Amino acid sequence: MLALVSFALMTADHRQRYLEVVRTGLSAAVYPLYYVVNLPIVAGGWVGANFTTHQSLKTENDQLRSEHLLLNAKVQTLAALDAENDRLRTLLEASAKVSERVSVAEIVAVDIDPYARKLVLNKGAQEGVYEGQPLISGEGVLGQVIKVGGPSSIAMLITDTGHSLPVMLNRTGLRAIAVGMGASGALDLSHLPNSTDIKVGDLLVTSGLDGRFPPNYPAAVVTHAEKMSSQPFMQVRAVPAAHLEHNREVLLVWHVPPAPVVTKCDPAKQKCAVQGSTSAAQGRVPEAAAVQGSAPAAISVPAASGGASLMPASPSVTVPAKPTQAPVAPATNQVIP
Fold first, then answer.
1. What Rg, from alpha-carbon coordinates, does the chain have?
2. Helix/strand/coil for 271
3. Residue 181: is it exposed, middle or buried by C-beta count within 10 angstroms (0-12/13-18/19+)?
């Protein structure tokens, strides 16, 4: 019976749609029940989605944080490499100013003694380094090698108390000796008379008179020049032109001074001939030299110390005695009556 009634209702609703209003009302009445039944499923999906999103965000944040730290480390490394490139570029520009052979050496250690200014370099006798070899940077003179080992060497900075550097005042040509003052990092120019024309800001360059350093290379800048009324000499201080404490690389210079001057005198003709180029580095004849005495005298001209194996030995210069003074001019192949 129920089956027949159901079939009749289905047929009538299908053809005539008599039960559309009843079905709509029943759907509205049953919807809350559907919502309540489906609520646990919806809530579970929402909780799962939020938990998954939180976990993925946390994992992504951790990964991004690690990448950030890694990139920061690389940036710091790149900054160091950029600074090193700048230093090497400066050294390259400095090497272009020096006509001699040069080589870049790295500083591997520093003397911890506050009164000593010594460095350990990563190049030694295996690379041809020799004692007395000059060190320069892109800004100026640094020092010289004092001990040579096989793979390394020890250098002394110009501010060390045991170092003296022949310099020349770039403005006037005045020659002086710059002595290191140790911990102060300054240079002392002693024995300059109060009448000396020198002032703060003057540039001091290497004179080349020691035969080790290339001439006319920046050495220091005068920072203090005071005339002492109670003393015969001025008090002059200078700071190195190079940044001695900020270099990681230095330039080793193979400096070979010019050939020595050879003076030949003919006692019969009372003439002296100067042959070869003048050299202030080794075996030079002093300026305004005068020949005096009644007996011949032999003046032996030694080779400059430090790197003697790279420099030709200087021959002896024999200057015979004459009753009158005969100045020796520093020109090449000139005959002085």
1. 44
2. strand
3. middle
Residue pLDDT, tens place only, 59-102: 888 888 888 877 777 666 666 666 767 766 776 666 666 667 78
Q: Tell whether pTM > 0.85.
A: no
| Residue 151 sits in the same domain as residue 245 | yes
Which domain-ending residue is among 67, 89, 111?
89
187-205 per-position pLDDT tens digit: 999 899 999 999 999 999 9
Contact present, 225 and 190 (Cβ < 8 Å): no
Stretch (H or E) spanning 5? helix 2-16
Digit-coded pLDDT (tens) for 205-243: 999 888 888 888 899 999 999 998 888 899 999 999 988
Q: Could you list the residue range(s) of the whole structural domain that residue 56 is in?
A: 2-89
Any domain includes 130: yes
Query: What total number of domains does the chain contain?
Result: 3
User: What residue ranges in the chain does DSSP mark as E strands?
Assistant: 101-110, 118-121, 134-136, 141-148, 153-157, 164-169, 175-180, 187-189, 203-206, 218-226, 235-240, 249-254, 262-266, 271-275, 297-299, 317-319, 334-336
> Rounded distance, CA 132 to CA 130, Å?
6
Residue 210 has what DSSP assignment? T
Which residues contact residue 272 at a Cβ distance below 8 angstroms, ignoring those fewer than 6 apart?
263, 264, 265, 266, 291, 319, 326, 328, 335, 336
Residues 240 and 126 reside in one and the same domain: yes
- C-beta separation of 165 from 136 below 8 A: no
Alpha helices in 98-196, H assignment, sequence order = none
Give me the CATH number covering residue 216. Answer: 2.40.10.340
Residue 95 is assigned to a structural domain of this protein: no
209 and 132 within one domain: yes
